[in-house]
Amino acid sequence: MISFQSVGFVFQNGTRGLHDVTLEIGEGITAIIGANGAGKTTLVRHMNGLLVPKLGNVFVNGQNTRDATVAQLSRMVGILFQNSERQLFSNTVEEEISYGLKNFGLRDDQIGAKVDEVLSFFDLSDYRGKSPLTLSGGEKKMLCLAVVLAWEPDFLVLDEPTIGQDSINKERIEALVRRLASKRKGIIIISHDVEFLWNLQPRVIAMSNGSILADGKASHIFSKRRIIQKTRIVRPQLLELSTILETVSNPFSSQDQAVNYLKDLMNKSPLKTSA
Ligand SMILES: Nc1ncnc2c1ncn2[C@@H]1O[C@H](COP(=O)(O)OP(=O)(O)OP(=O)(O)O)[C@@H](O)[C@H]1O
Ligand SMILES: [Mg+2]
User: Which atom of ligand 1 lies closest to the CA of 160?
Assistant: First the structure.
């Protein structure tokens, strides 16, 4: 469990980062939405101790982040940052993944098995001996994700994971998120990509000006005009379609659902029987 208790944070230049944030995040998928500058990245930087609250406390699995190192907290909370590519530093892709595992004290055979597993999952096996810096932007991001996942943290935070990713990698991220959720991990996704989020039907936390604006089911949060305006998002298309077809009390959560509904509707149509 990650627990924020009345957390306030102000940057050195006086900019307010967070204001009176209280929330608990456990297993399953949680999305964080909000306009640029709303405080989303600042919030998640408190989850592995990169930032420590000015007011209040953050606990990760019962551990106060004030009393733990970033390394200790990172073992529990793995974060894929918005510009994580900049953090790549090893000579080879393989070393990049094994570095963290060595630091966490895994045996060589365990490290070897883990490296094989994540490279194959992210389709990066061919790059094993290459320099991370020679990878494309999207591949670098996948590598950063592979690095974080290799140590199997309880919580995985993805800060804008779909930006710049092609459709295969987007599907890969979606499959990964679902798989981790089924393993009872906590996955926290910051994203402006509402279509990607809608597919996952997560709990949604909406932020504005460093505060929590709303917290609830995706269908509820994405239906509120005020939240849509404040977070500057466009409503998911399937929710929009559900509104038009007046099925909004039980909105379509997948394209297949919508297609089946429309096919049924066409079969029932009087035009069809008379034709
Ligand atoms: N290092 C910093 N020093 C001073 N102010 C900062 C710093 N980092 C962020 N801020 C400010 O804190 C506020 C929240 O920033 P944050 O990066 O958390 O926003 P965000 O919700 O992640 O936005 P985006 O969608 O653009 O990534 C903004 O007003 C930003 O200008
Ligand atoms: Mg951000």
Answer: 27
φ, ψ dihedrals at 241, nearest 5°: -65, -40
What are the residues facing 207 on neighbouring strands? 34, 212
181-213 residue pLDDT tens: 999 999 999 999 999 999 999 999 999 999 999
pLDDT at residue 248, rounded to an integer: 78
The number of the ligand 1 atom at minimal distance from the alpha carbon of 192 is 25
Q: For residue 8, which of 18, 60, 40 has the smallest C-alpha distance?
A: 18
- Amino acid in position 194: V
**Ligand 1 pocket residue status of 34, Cβ below 6 Å:** yes
Q: CB–CB of 98/84 below 8 Å? A: no
Q: Out of 2.60.120.10, 3.30.420.40, 3.40.50.300, 3.30.200.20, select the CATH number for domain 2-87+152-234.
A: 3.40.50.300
> What is the DSSP code (8-state) at residue 116?
H
Q: Which of 13, 16, 33, 41 to mutate to test the pocket of ligand 1 (most atoms within 8 A of CB)?
A: 41
Q: If you measure from the C-alpha of residue 40 to the centroid of ligand 2, how many angstroms do you get, rounded to a whole number?
A: 5
Q: Is 11 in the pocket of ligand 1 (CB under 6 A)?
A: yes
Instruction: Report domain extents, the chain.
Output: 2-87+152-234, 236-275
